[in-house]
Amino acid sequence: MGTNFITAQQVSKSFGTKHVLTDIDLTLPAGTIYGLIGPSGAGKTTLVKSIMGMEKVDHGTVTVMDAVMPNRQVMAKIGYMAQSDALYETLTARENLTFFGQLMSVAPKQLKQTIAYAANLVNLTKDLDLRVSDYSGGMKRRLSLAIALIQNPNLLILDEPTVGIDPELRQQIWEELNNLKATGKSILITTHVMDEAERCDYLMLIRRGIALAQGTPAELKAKYQVDSIEQVFLKAGRLQDADHSNR
Ligand SMILES: Nc1ncnc2c1ncn2[C@@H]1O[C@H](COP(=O)(O)OP(=O)(O)OP(=O)(O)O)[C@@H](O)[C@H]1O
C-alpha cells in the first residue's frame, strides 16, 4: 500500500440544489488520528460516507488503501461505526458481535478472543448476554464501536463514536485509539466535541461543506492566534461569514 490510507481529492457532493461538500481534499497517512470537526449539518457524515463509497460523489476522487472507491472489498475491510446504530435488537450483544465477526470472516478461533477484547474496551463485558433491546442509547453506541473493532481493522472510520458515552469511558476509548494508532493503524473520526478535537493529530474544520482550515491542533491555534480549537473554529467561521457577505 502507498503511504496513505485515504486520499480524497476535490470531492464535491450536492443533494438536489443543496451543495453539501465543496472541493474537499483529505489525506490520511498511516498511524494518524484525523478529526473532522464541524457543527451539525456541516457535511461530516456525507464526507465519511463518500469516503466509504456509500455516497456517490458528484466530482472528485476517493482512494482508500490504494483502491478507487466505491469498492466493496475495501469497504468490508474498514472498521466503520455509523452515526446511527445498526444492531439486531432482539439478539444479545454477544450474538451481535458474533454475527458481525462471522460476516467479516473473523476466524472462529479468534472470534472469542476479539469479542472479549472489544467488549472489555467499551466496558460491556458483564452485559454481553443482555438483549440489545434492553440496552441504553450509550450502551448501543459502545456496542457499535466494539463491532467496528471486531475484525482488527487497519483503518477505522468512526462517526461521532462518543456521543452518549460518559467522560470516564470516553477517556478510556481515547487511550485505546492512541494504542491502535501506535501500532500503525489510522482513524478518521467525526466529532463536535472540542476537547476531542484537541486529541487528534490532524484536523479538518468543516462548515457548510467547506474545509475552513486543516492542520495539527497546534498549527491551527498558531495560525489563528488563539488558545483553543473552539476559538479557531469561531474565528474561522466569522471569516467565512465575512467572506460570504463580501461576495
Ligand atoms: N440523503 C440526503 N438527502 C438530502 N439531504 C441530505 C442527505 N444527507 C444529508 N443531507 C443534508 O446534507 C447536509 C449535511 O449533512 P451531514 O449529515 O453530512 O452533516 P453532519 O456534519 O454530519 O451533521 P451532524 O453533526 O448533525 O451529523 C445537511 O443539510 C443534511 O440535511
TrEMBL record:
Domain ABC transporter: 6-233
Entry keyword annotation includes ATP-binding: yes
One protein family per Pfam: ABC_tran
Gene3D superfamilies in the cross-refs: P-loop containing nucleotide triphosphate hydrolases
UniProt keywords, alphabetically: ATP-binding, Nucleotide-binding
PROSITE patterns named among the record's database cross-references: ABC_TRANSPORTER_1 (PS00211), ABC_TRANSPORTER_2 (PS50893)
Keyword Nucleotide-binding: yes
GO molecular function: ATP binding; ATP hydrolysis activity
Superkingdom field: Bacteria
PANTHER family named in the record: ABC TRANSPORTER G FAMILY MEMBER 20 ISOFORM X1, ATP-BINDING CASSETTE, SUB-FAMILY H, MEMBER 1
Name recorded for this polypeptide: ABC superfamily ATP binding cassette transporter, ABC protein
Species: Lactiplantibacillus fabifermentans DSM 21115
